[in-house]
Amino acid sequence: MRVVTVRTLVLAASLASGLACSGLFGADDATLVAPADAMLQKGDLPAASAAYKKLYEEHPTSVGAAVGYSYTQLVGGDIVGADTTLAKIEPIAGDKVGEVRLRRALIALKAQDLDRVKVLGLQSGLPEGKLFAAEVHLVDLQPDEAIKLFTELSGAPGVVGDTAKTYLQLLQSSDQHKASLAEASALWALGAHADACESVSKSLEALPEDDPDKQTLMLLWAGRSVVSGKVQIAKNLVEGLFPPEGQSWRYQSTLAMIKIADGQTQDGLQMFQVLKQDASVPRQGLDDALATACGLTRDPEVAKKLVDGVESPGAARCLLEAGANAADHVSDGPMHSFLENP
């Protein structure tokens, strides 16, 4: 079985963002929202939010303006407002009503209202929305309903089809532990990360040793477990694990993250230092791992050592949360200005 990481949130990410307006809602809307889209693209959320709000108030029938404004409301933490904005535009969205409903499903997911995720996902009529609904059926212990939707979606192109096929392979396997992996994957995709990690560990350990995917899956879920606060599960999964070919650096970085999360900071820092000096380690992957590890500590000195030389929003965010100076870890621009002048 080919391993496909389930990424329902990523599947619809372009639909969740106001930046998608230009490509979805026609030439008139594209022209209307282009300046606000540009502000959002540059990372200037306050200016983009104000621009989308003004457009929405002045053009109440513009789907693009409503979608952009809803997105900035969601990012700003106004979940109810974000859904209300889309609900008002939905009756006049025309042939774009599916995209609007999918966005509403994403907002419901943010609120962890899975019943609404399922309903809106199905009502969207889009493959991504139906995938949401199938995953909710799965975590609601309705595998037959989930299988019907996964079977329908298995013929879809791209990630949706690949994900549906993977779910079907797991659910229709004679090994009951693989069916449990499907449920855990759905929990993870729907944002219940800690629950997913708790449910998956025994199933992974019970897989036959000659299963070609076992080591890859254990490494994947060990990383997920440590960032979800389930350090002991991560420890159990990496114990005796043999890194898949080409994944030794990822295995070592996972071990280092476990050390950081477990309070053995010096050991973790030393392991990451060795990885930094290894030219064969992919730099982008390591930078992502360092930013992730940084988020596992609240010691500002440890955080600074971890992301020394790393420039990314993730590194800046973790430093900010740890109480350290973050401005040096993002390029000049709105976020840099914000960090310099909070």
Features:
disordered C terminus; mainly alpha; 342 residues; 22 helices; 0% strand; Serine Threonine Protein Phosphatase 5, Tetratricopeptide repeat
Topology (elements, then pairings):
Layout: H1 8-11, H2 13-16, H3 21-24, H4 26-41, H5 45-58, H6 63-75, H7 79-89, H8 97-110, H9 114-124, H10 127-139, H11 143-153, H12 158-171, H13 176-189, H14 193-206, H15 214-227, H16 231-238, H17 248-261, H18 265-276, H19 283-294, H20 300-306, H21 313-322, H22 334-340
Helix pairs in contact: 4-5, 4-6, 5-6, 6-7, 7-8, 8-9, 9-10, 10-11, 10-13, 11-12, 12-13, 13-14, 14-15, 15-16, 15-17, 16-17, 17-18, 17-19, 19-20, 19-21
Question: Could you walk me through the main structural features you see in this protein, from its secondary elements to its overall organization?
Answer:
This protein is mostly helical and about 350 residues long. It has a domain of about 190 residues: Tetratricopeptide repeat domain (Serine Threonine Protein Phosphatase 5, Tetratricopeptide repeat, Alpha Horseshoe). The protein is globular, with a radius of gyration of 22 Å.
Number of helices: 22
How far apart the termini lie comes to 49 Å
Task: Please give the CATH architecture of the domain at 1-191.
Answer: Alpha Horseshoe
Under CATH, the homologous superfamily of the domain at 1-191 reads Tetratricopeptide repeat domain
On the 0 to 100 scale, the average pLDDT is: 84
Output the radius of gyration: 22 Å
Quick structural gist:
With 342 residues, the protein is an all-alpha fold.
